[in-house]
Amino acid sequence: MPEEIETEQVEEQQQEAETAQEAVGGEEEPFDRKRAEAALKKKNSEAENLRKRLKELEPLAKRAKELEDAQKSEAERLTEQLTAQQERAKKAIRTAVAAKVEALAANSFTDPEDAAGALDLAAYVDDEGAIDTDAIKRDLADLLKRKPHWGKTPDGPRRPAPDRTQGSSGNGSRTPMKPEEEFAGWLGNILGQTR
What we know:
68% of the residues lie in helices and 0% in strands. The chain is mainly alpha-helical.
């Protein structure tokens, strides 16, 4: 079988040589079999050497690919960890700013959580993560001007005033009954229903 391949290769080389000679100018050089066989042996030897080197390098290429994939997955894992840590840091900063806003709003707002919910908390943190307390105070004062009903009254939170006309008497014109009379009326109603 190798002899067949060599024969085919020799024939192909002859055809290529003839085609090249025709393209150059038509001058034919006589075919030298020994020279063609020597060239063929040289090419076969080179091909054999390349196949051997390929076999030697294939395991190394496979190992390099495995290491590259392992590094990619390690990099992806580290990227995911970094993203998770950044999210946790942002959440902690938001919580700290909300606590600061609520602490500053506690003196003037009935419900400090309302103030924290109404303000953009991210606006009060600079690039280093420091909280701008002065800006929070200014915005709380502005918010209290826009929504005065959120503020505390001087004597404490607002409470509805009791209305003494409301309750069991309905219109407030009835005179209160003594407990004995009330019990007798109740008992009379019950006994009257059973008859």
